[in-house]
Amino acid sequence: QITVLGTPAEEQGGGKIDLINAGAFDGLDVVFMAHPSQENAPYLPDVAEHDVTVKYYGKASHAAAYPWEGVNALDAAVLAYNNLSVLRQQMKPTWRVHGVIKNGGVKPNIIPSYTELEFYLRAPSMKDLSLLTEKVENCFKSAALATGCKVEIKGGANDYYNVLPNKSLQKVYKENGKKLGIEFISEDSILNGLSGSTDFGNVTFIVPGLHAYFYIGSDALNHTEQYTEAAGSQNAQFYALRTAKALAMTALDVIFKPDLLEAVREDFRQVKLKEEGQINPV
Fold first, then answer.
1. pLDDT tens across 26-85, in order?
2. Contact yes or no for 41/127 (Cβ under 8 A)
3. Which of 269, 206, 264 lies closest to 20 in space, CA to CA?
4. Are 242 and 147 spatial neighbours (Cβ–Cβ below 8 Å)?
5. CATH 3.40.630.10 residue ranges in the chain?
6. Contacts of 189 (CB under 8 A, 6+ apart)
7. Half-sphere exposure of 79 (CA within 13 A, CB side)
8. What does each C-alpha distance from 155 to 55, 62, 256 come to in angstroms?
9. What CATH architecture is 48-155?
10. 28-46+163-275: CATH topology
11. Please, what's the largest Cα pairwise distance for the chain?
12. Burial class (CB in 10 A: 0-12, 13-18, 19+), 165
């Protein structure tokens, strides 16, 4: 049996996580998907991700007449941002922290009583993400302490897990793709590269998964106007259909080759153990 699932809100909110909680993946042996990119790869190390919204509450006052009566929430936001900039020296090369100040005050002559920041934290594993989150939250808390503001730190509804690789699925998909003329990037490029984050990572923690990437005929970068235009072109349809065929061929291999399915399940079991720290990586 083959099930086709559409995913709402992959970029914001984690639609696949809602599908997991609703039981949509229960009873499935493997799950496949493909994501457009600038290259063809059976896997890229998509990392774990945590959203955080930070709100500082101070006290408004006239900035010229009696500023000493105020408690400056913008100062707290700026200190928090600078604290994170200082933290970067002690961050691992694979960690990422990026964010914006969404609300910085109302008018220059009013001490801001409220500011809001939004940040994304990323790391290669959930374990690393937990360590990074603690360090970042300390940066937010110390800014509140220094300025006398109150701080509210709220995580997103769902964390995105890192995508777990499955070497057996990747090998078969790559073999099928080559039969269709797909040229894949090297293993070194895969291992040394970094990608974004996806709620498909959460899926790979409950069922063996394949998250491939495919070239669409353009060197434009994802999440740009140029890439949006390229993705809608007739040229991109050829590459998307070719990738779909490679996925379908891989699905047939899993269905009709019991030994392959057993290998896929064993890969899944081993990589889960590594992720949970129960065995040492080879």
1. 999 999 999 999 999 999 999 999 999 999 999 999 999 999 999 999 999 999 999 999
2. no
3. 206
4. no
5. 28-46+163-275
6. 39, 41
7. 20
8. 12, 33, 44
9. 2-Layer Sandwich (3.30)
10. Aminopeptidase (3.40.630)
11. 80
12. buried
Token pair in block for residue 254:
């899993």
Distance between CA 49 and CA 40 in Å, rounded? 23
Q: Which of 5, 17, 1 is nearest to 198 (CA)?
A: 17
Q: How confident is the model at residue 216 (pLDDT cuts 50, 70, 90)?
A: very high
CB 104 within 8 A of CB 118: no
Residue range(s) occupied by CATH 3.30.70.360 in the chain: 48-155
Q: What is the pLDDT of residue 179?
A: 97
Note the pTM of the prediction, 2 decimals: 0.89
Q: Where are the beta strands (DSSP E) in the chain?
A: 31-37, 48-57, 96-103, 114-123, 150-155, 209-215
Q: Are 185 and 197 in contact (CB under 8 A)?
A: no
Quick check: 87 and 79 in contact, CB under 8 A? no
How many residues are recorded in the chain?
282
